[in-house]
Amino acid sequence: MSKWYQQFCTVLLCASSLVSGIHASEAQTAQATASPIDVRAQQRELFLEAEAALKNRQLDDYSRLIEALGAYPLVPYLEADYIRLLATPKDDARVSEFLDQHYLSPLGWQVRSVWLDKLMDDHHYEQFLSYYEYPGSIRHQCFAVYAQLATGTGDTAPILRLVNDIWLTGESLPKDCDPVLEAWTNAGMRTADMIWQRIVLAAEGGQHTLIPYLQKLLPENMQYLAEHYHRVRRNPANLTQRKYLSGDFPKHETQIVTYGLGRLIWRDPDVALELMDSLPAHINFSAEQYLLLRQTFAVALSLKDHDQASRWLARLDATEHTDATLHWQLAEWLREGAWTQIMSLVPRLPDTQRESDQWQYWFARSLEAQGFGPVSKQIFERLAQQRSYYGFLAAAKLKQSLSLSREALELPPEQISRVRQLPGVQRAYELRALDRGLDARREWNSLLEHLPPDDQRALAVIASDWGWHDQAIYTLGTLGEYDAIAQRFPTAYLEEHQQFSDAANIDVNWALAVSRRESAFRDDARSHAGAYGLMQLLPSTANLVERRDVSVHELFNPSYNIRLGTRYLADLQRRLGDNWILATAAYNAGIYRVYDWLPAQPMEVDRWIELIPYAETRNYVKNVLAYQQIYRTLRENELQPELFGELVPMQISGAQLKR
Prior knowledge:
This protein is an all-alpha fold. It contains 41 helices and two strands. The radius of gyration is 31 Å and the shape is globular.
């Protein structure tokens, strides 16, 4: 064990030195009376100075700073940087020791990857193989095969068969793989079937520009298949070109048609439907392919509100439904008020779907609508015991108290203290203090992967104590600790939420619920759609609210983000007839989509929410409503379902709004 770990949890005395030349012994004397908080603050400064010294190759200064830092938790990051920048194959012992010490931390795989690159460059075959761990990068996989071929004797076939997995990718392979691919090909392992499998991967979600290259590798009489796959990938309407459906390779042609129809139904449903009814006889779908097409057609046609949607939904047996097709079947019947059909379907569903809160709620609603009040009430009573959107709806319909089923996450103090002192936890804390969120999360996620469940629970408590709420929420969700309500629903940034909600004249619990759903209170959150910060605002939205150009940096400021987010919620609510349900949907999907979704005739709000076409928005609205109720209950200590009580009689209609 290194000196860093031997010293790790002792009182930090050796903590400071300046690049100008103060020696470690003087630093210890100067700081012997410093508080641990002051020591850590000074160590952070020294750490940054050591990083800069190493980067600039000022190795004498670097060595003094390393000595002064002593047991500071982030010293291993400096050693990792040293290995990446300066280590050579002669430093094998140093690298080996580091990797042994940090095998389970993110530093381990980061340094191992760089070290393998160095060994590859110098063709140190045996040394490379001693460090290589499957799978590694594609480059490393290829070199591992190459190194085994270079150092091995005897039958090479088992080694070359390792190339099969490397070959089967829809992406281009690096040039480092060329030698082993050539050996694999020369050994006769690149068969037509292997080539075809890779064409499928490239066509169906991979790098489609790879297909022309792979086409040339096929036997000449099969090359038309690759050409057709490529054309269909670029435009599924090319399926209609019958010259490619010659029947020479019916299974391959059927595979292309299955893929193409699955895309064409979204782009041009009428053409897809016509083609489906006029395929050549040799296009014979397997049971799996035909089920996939029926499910895809049912969802696509339903989402597009096509007049053939009902027909394709009806082709699915109760046991063949996916969650998506079941939703659209439910939506169709709810739109029509077809309560009898819902009643008849639910008992035939698989157990997991039949017993879900959603289907139990609508089963009870259908029974209620058909005059079976006592049976319906029994189901609502069971459902009202659940802490969920549907459970809260059921409680509101019965006008009875909510069930939060909360249970504090209580752990022995000594366990929390022990976990808090783990090197990975200490590193995560310091990385957060240095505003290095990505590295901090890598450390935390590595701990979650390797610690036992009880210690993971301690991690959740520690993260909550640190105000690292999104990690606490994520950890508890992963562990299934759903009853730890205090940690799962923190009142983070409560002062700011309250101040700006009051200013915008909206419910603070609504604002908290939106922040909880949008980012789990992660102030540096960013989405694939380009939304930023606590309440996940698009720059264009922020500009509109603020009437000026707002920078991304500003959106990462929690207070500013909450101010804009609450103002935007209030504006949406005002524009949508003071209806916060519609405003919640608009916050996620945009106000003009919500306008399009409004029914001409009044509709109960629970039915309208279920008819929202976008699954993301539909689930978003349900979650925000449930979270808002939870926050109201937690903050006001009131178990009456006041919030959901407002929903039960509510009607949604486009006629009541002025655009």
